[in-house]
Structure formats: C-alpha cells, structure tokens
Amino acid sequence: MRHVASEGGAPRPVGASRNALAAVLLTVLIDTIGFGIVIPVLPQLIVELTGDSLALATRDGGYLLVTYAVMQFFFGPVMGSLSDRFGRRVVILASLAAFGTDYLVMALAPTLAWLFVGRAVAGMSGAVYAAANAFIADITPAGDRAKSFGLVGAMFGLGFILGPAMGGLLGELGPRAPFFASALLAFLNLIYAFLVLPETLPPERRRPFVLRRANPFGTFASLARRGGVLGLAAAMFLWQLAHQVYPSTWSFFTKIRFGWSEAEIGASLALVGVTMAVVQGGLTGRLVGRWGERRAAFLGLTVGTLAFVAYGLAMRSWMLYGIILFAALQGLVYPSMNALLSRRVSEDQQGELQGGIASLYSLATIIGPLVMTQALSRFSAADARVHLPGAAFFLAAALAVVSGWMLARSLPGRPARVGTDSDLT
User: Fold this and answer.
1) Contact indicator for 272, 243 with CB cutoff of 8 Å
2) Minimal CA–CA distance to 276: which of 333, 360, 337?
3) Do 138 and 217 touch, CB atoms closer than 8 A?
4) Which of 7, 114, 236, 351 could anchor a disulfide with 80, C-beta 3.0 to 4.6 Å?
C-alpha cells in the first residue's frame, strides 16, 4: 500500500487517508443539509410561536442568528482546543449529538425562548467545522490541504443547495417538520460517523488543554508566536467581512435595484451554490497545484474585488448572472488562506487554529450584516443625498483590497517556482 508522509510523524496509508477524508466530507455535507433545511420555515415558526407580524419575526430571526454567531465566537476555540487534547473524533461526535438535540428542541419548542436556547447550544457546539478542518490537516500533506479545504467548501455549497430545497418541500407539512427532519439527519450522521470516522490525532501528538488559550484572544496570542499568523488571520477576517455582503444584502439589493421576485432570488442563490461547489470541489486543487496557495489566494481576491465592483455598477438584472459565473473563482480565497495558515502551526495546534478561524468567521457574521445592511439602507433610501444601491458592494470591494494588502505583507517575496510556496519557509 502506498503511503504519504505526515509532518513530524509516521507515514499514513493513502487509501486510509482517502477513506477518512470521504467520511468527514459526508459528515459536513449532511450537517449542512440539516442546517439549510430549516431556513425556509424559520420565519413561519417564529410567527406561530409569537403571534407577531412577519416584520417583527424577521427581527427575532436576526437575533437568533446573532445568538448563534456570538456563542460560536467564544466557544469555537474551546472546541478546537478540546480536539487538540482529546482528539478530533470525540469532538466531532459530541458536536453532532448536540446538533441533533438542538434541532429536536427547536422542533418541540413551546415558546420563542426555547428557540434561543437551541441556537445557543448549536453555537457552542458548532465547531464541527473547526474539528473537521483540523481532521483534514491531520490526514493531508501540507501541499494538498488547499484542495481538501476546498472540498469542505464544496460540501458546504452543495448542502446549501439541497437543504433549502428539501426544507421548502417539507415545509408543506408544517413549520416544524423540517426541524424533525434535521434532527433525524443529525442523529443518522452521528451513527455513521461513530461507525466509520477514525481518530487522526494520536496521543503522542496531543497537547494539554489550557483554559487561557481556549478563547479567541488567548488563541491568537498563542498563535502570534508563529511568524505571519496574525497578518494572515487579519487578511482572512477582512475577506470574510467583505463576503458578508452576500448573505446580508443580496435579497434586499436585488429587490431594491431590480425588483426581483423570491423565485428569482432563489434561482440566483442556487447558481451561487453550484458555482461554489464546482470551483472549490473541482478547480481549487488543480489551480493551487499549478500556481501555489499564495497566487491562488491573490487570484481569488482579485476576482472577488472586481465582482463586488461589478455588482455595484450593474445596470441590468441579467448582468448579475454573468457576474455570478465570473465571481466563482473567489472561492479560491478561503481554502488557500486556510492552507497557508495551517502551514504556520504545528500538528498539535491545528485544532486551536481552526477554532480561532471559526471565531473570526463568527465575528464577521456579527459585524458584517450590521455594516452592510446599514450601507444599503442609507444609500438606497428615497431621501438619500447620494442614491447608490451598490454602496455595500463598493464597501466590500474596499475591504477585499485591504485584505490583499495584508496578505502581501504577510507573505513577502515570490515563490521559487510554480506550484510551491517557498516564501513560507
């Protein structure tokens, strides 16, 4: 059996690594489907529980999202550090069990307060992605990590295509049906993972759990000792902040600017999901293998910046579909940056790193929607001094430019040859 070398340890069988990767990717896919299933019916369930109007229910829905993001911000490093101490498998299994319980609680919720309890529990245990990425770092050679991280993004995109579609169908049975379905998927996922998911972090590579490091601030204070980590983390955060323009303003922007219907909005989001799955699942590995992670990240940032500007300047609705196809290459940014960061830390810090990245993403999901929606609202209002509905996209473009500047500062010089990242050494 052919083996691949692991950093600082024994070689790993290629077949075993591929089987483990397939298992964790399926876990991410099923979990994302379960999350996406509930999206179409959440407003209806809130209305049912509160008796409020849809407008007020939207406000409560926003508070639920913030609750999830805040809890994940603080607990992502905890779960990542726990995976460095006890292994990836046990943390992933515990997270899946918590997700299943969360969906069941929400399905049976008698009051709105129970929905908040469920979202808080899900946010605390939502580091399954951090543990999954650390799992992937364990089994994948450094040069192939961008491709594997891209496959995680592809599963995420595919899950957000299948999940809402299934949720819309199940919602015909009532607003609680998708929550029961999500709970069932999560528990089936738990059983599957228990049976097939191996442990990838042997005891000799684990590190003690240190509480002062198991928080967002302690995590990056620890990782800052590794050269270039903070600059790369800042670049990733700014990119994630810019990227929040899509989930927070797309529905409102397309309605305000072009009068799109819900069906048109849904179709455009489905196209985004498909293109994300194609790029992150099919092209990331090839492009990174040819150009290296550094160049791939800059290509994605360049395309993303141009796409933001193009959305802001679009004069006809049909243009948006062409921009979506062009913008697909921005899917290179996250897996390439994640791979660059994973090179900078040791094997016993991969969980800590991924927990910190989860916190950065959560912080972006807290700040981004507030900033982007305010920009859209201010510049699209009837009494606005400057009428500019694309203002949020121009702001995102500016953030992407600063992200690229931070990335360049963190990775000075040029790789020695195509396909390598010798500037990291």
Assistant:
1) no
2) 333
3) no
4) 351
